[in-house]
Amino acid sequence: MRGTRFLLGLSLIACSHQPASPGAVSPPGTATTAPSTPTGMSVPQTTAAAGAGSATSPVIAAQATADPVAALSDSDAPRGWLGVELEALGTGEAGVGVAHVVPHSPAEAAGLAAGDVIVRLDNDAVSTPSEVVAAVSARHAGVKVAVMLKRAGADRLVAVNLGVFPEETDLMRMNFVDRPAPPFEALETAKGNLTPTLAALRGQVVVVEFWASWCVACRAMIPHMNEWHEKYAARGLRIIGITNDPVARAATAASDLGMEYAVASDETGKTSSAYQAHAIPLVFVIDRAGTVRDVMIGYDSDRFPGMDDLLRRLLAQS
Q: Does the predicted model carry a pTM greater than 0.85?
């Protein structure tokens, strides 16, 4: 039986602050600890016991605290990147499973595919996702790595030229942009007239924002979301704020924070997981056909003019 999945290719910097206590919502402008991330994103420090809605996986956390340069002989050389999502295999199974290959990644270029089992990287035998992360992290971008794997029970040897470890937003774009948006799962409406399924929103341009009431950067996003709602709702734009808070708490927070758009509760964490909402705020722009057209991680004021232009173009399309 295969276990928890891990991302090889997403490194997050954790916030120094903790989520606010349940139900504690202060209005915008209230003094709170500022996020420690350079892009204004927040990463929850807690993880759910059963994995649903977990902030980070153990491997992501390990990559965040490890020095990516320390293992390199040349401190100026960029860290190598493979571009796969890994999963631990069951007891007695050798190797590490490939759950997902990032589009346009070195792994995809070399022909790796979901379902492959990585057994060895050069001379390093691997049996856990952490060992794959360590082996790749110790190599420079541009280095060719021999990957021994099993596919459908047969041994294969694949040469992979490691790429440059991407920024978080770039990685999310590789995974999502120009691909169908994942369906919403197990959402409940907390505010607004909303049927919380992606199918019900087909034909409209949709902005999805993953947020939390304790997240300072998320609060900075609210005026921008409100402005888009006011300017474009009549032209077919739907903005949906998705939070892991239960319905009642989400509704209270949305009211206290002045959110004028629809809000949904993702208490199970299924939709957050499908959209890889490991850092918040996280914004997706989805066109009328249900295709992701842009992704933004964190609060980045420089991105808003371009996203506004994109919304106007998408809304002009029939």
A: no
